[in-house]
Specification:
The chain is an alpha/beta fold. The protein has one domain: Rossmann fold (3-Layer(aba) Sandwich), CATH 3.40.50.2020. It is 23% helix and 36% strand. The protein is built from 3 helices and 10 strands. Strand 6, helix 3 and strand 7 form a beta-alpha-beta unit. Helix 1 crosses helix 2. The longest helix is centred in the N-terminal third of the chain and has 18 residues. The chain starts with a strand and ends with a strand.
Amino acid sequence: MEPSVKVSDKTFRPYLSEEQILTEVRRVAARISEDLKDEHPLFVCVLNGAFIFAADLFRMITIPDAEITFIRMKSYVGTETTGKVKTIAGLHESVVDRTVVVVEDIVDSGYTMERLVHQLKDDLGAKDVRVAVLLNKPNARKVDNLKIDYCCLEIPNDFIVGYGLDYNEQGRNLKDIYVVED
């Protein structure tokens, strides 16, 4: 890992190595593969942040007829959530009577995930909706009763970048995860 990286106007220090991340992704993939082995699950990757996590996770899933699709939602500007969730690119596949696994990079406030789970289950008719996240920030939660079914790591309420996570759309390409210094 680099000792520190500069992304835009902020400096970030090392937090999680690629090896640490992939160890946890393998663990979660094995659990999902076991739990849903008799299902025909549809994985829904929330873009842009979760694309690297989703790719690594999906390649480790051992369910031959699993499928993946993508949606794009946005609720952040800079390092802060706006509290408003905007759907930029929606779902085109039917989820009626399907088991859906939402793949998200990070859950902090919970606004985006709460809205998405509600849409998939109540509005679009999914049989079951499971949530798989790379990183969970329970101390940042602003919504009640949000269930995270599969979590790679719980972290404090720090701002991070790398492995798909961004700061103003930059830093996603870093293979490790870094935490903000200033």
